[in-house]
Amino acid sequence: MSEAAQLKQVKDYPKLFSVGVLHMAQYFPITFAAVALPFLFRQQGLPLEMFWLLALPGLPRWFKWLLALVVDNYGSDRIGRRKSWIIPCTVLGAGLYAVMAFIPPELANINIMVGIMVLSAFIMAAQDIAVDAYAAESMKDHERSAGTSIINVLVAVSSVLAIASIALVEAVGWRITMFLAAAMLVLMALPGMIRREPPPPPAARKRIDEGRKPDLLAAVKRRDSRYILPFMFLFGYGQHFFLTMLGPFWADQGMSISEYGLVSALGAITGGVLAATTTPWLIGRTSMRFTAIVGLISLPIEALVYRNFALTTGVPELWLVALSIALLSYVTNLYVYAVSISRFRWVSQSQAGTEYSMQSSLWNLGIWAAGSTSGLVAAKFGFAVFFPIAAGVTIVGGAYYVLLWNRIEKLVLEREAEEVLLNER
User: Fold this and answer.
1) Three-state DSSP string of 193-260
2) What distances in angstroms separate CA 299 from CA 28, 130, 281, 346, 390, one per listed residue?
């Protein structure tokens, strides 16, 4: 069935919304900390060579493949196999964010804050596994584009709120802002936690009934994984190599945290809400590959714009910065959201938590590697050279996706057909 025909089939939107709000809940405190802390610590003089410290909380997410074996194996059928993890992890994660309210974001406290964020990352990684598995198991083939779009839109809304709330740090202080972030994590997750969890798909139910454990080694050795897993590392590295230096760059240019919150929120609206909404529409009228290509073509333009900003002393007119970021965020994220839709397509329904987490682990390893090296590159070459390098790094991963998309899709369809035959026996 074509991508366009799948989009026209009836979809269970209440179910898709409940999946989306669970993702939405994850990203509010994560985005707030990831955007605010690099900016604040750079303002206080943290050297670019030391920004690898702020990348450490991303490292535990590399171990999602190991945590997934536990999450996929255990859970209450009465509460819901996925909600058994989502509910307690959400509460614990919110508690740790509340603890951070009592620790001012000062250079003297950076080690303590990073330590708390690392612990929180382990807990939220388990929640992330359950949420991603919930999404992958709940969405049918014809719902994946719409469902992923809803997830991405709600995540973008959450990110916009998180980024905009950075301005609250100046208005009401760090403590109140962090308490609000912790409360928002719980409040946003409530609709998804209250809704009854759908039963596992037939492939997963059969595995559970037969007492079979998720098989990580078999998943790694699959033919499609040979292409998917290396790409996930390249995708995470390229996507975040550029993003991790935006806060430090604008701090160096002399932006206030309120101004940075404003322009970042506008970028999140166009690059998140608008791009996530129009990506399925564009895919339905063209293809996944074409949509990704449109996003990738804009990357050299983005690099030139930021290079020009870097060669300008101080902050240009704020309206010009906001407009540039908004337009560029929209176009470049067409590639990001095309990949997001593909990721839910690529996992096996028989062990969705393990498979999606295996992909996500490589993606997060790329994110950690990007955060650990981007500051070193920016310090050595300067921002005027850094941004073209960052665009080139992202294009490498994008070219991999575009060139191998048909081959991966063919292998995934063959694997799905084999799973259907096994379930019928």
Assistant:
1) HHCCCCCCCHHHHHHHHCCCCCCHHHHHHCCCHHHHHHHHHHHHHHHHHHHCCHHHHHHHHCCCHHHH
2) 26, 33, 21, 26, 9
Question: What is the distance between the alpha carbons of residues 374 and 392, in angstroms, rounded to a whole number?
Answer: 13
Q: Which domains occur in the chain, in start order?
A: 3-424 (1.20.1250.20)
299's tokens:
């990357």
Measured CA to CA in angstroms, residue 24 lies from 137, 192, 276, 346, 363 at distances of 18, 10, 13, 22, 19
Q: What contacts 10, CB < 8 A, 6 or more positions away?
A: none
Extract the tokens encoding 293.
């290509």
Which of 1, 20, 38 minimizes the C-alpha distance to 245?
38
With a cut of 90, say whether residue 51 has pLDDT above it.
Answer: no
Quick one: pLDDT at residue 7?
A: 47
What is the model's pLDDT at position 353? 65
Structure-token match 């405190």, residue found: 29
Kindly report the length of the chain: 425
How distant is the alpha carbon of residue 309 from its chain centre?
27
Quote the CA–CA distance of 282 and 270 in Å, as a whole number. Answer: 15
Q: What sign for the dihedral angle of Cα 273, 278, 281, 287?
A: negative
For residue range 1-27, list pLDDT tens digits in order.
445 455 456 777 878 888 888 877 777
Q: Which residues pair with 80 in a beta bridge?
A: 76
d(CA 310, CA 383): 6
* The amino acid at 135: A
Structure tokens at 300: 């050299």
Q: What's the DSSP call for residue 347?
A: S
Q: What is the pTM of this model?
A: 0.72
The phi, psi pair for 76, rounded to 5°, reads -90, 125
Q: DSSP per residue over 309-336, as a string?
A: HHTSSS---HHHHHHHHHHHHHHHHHHH
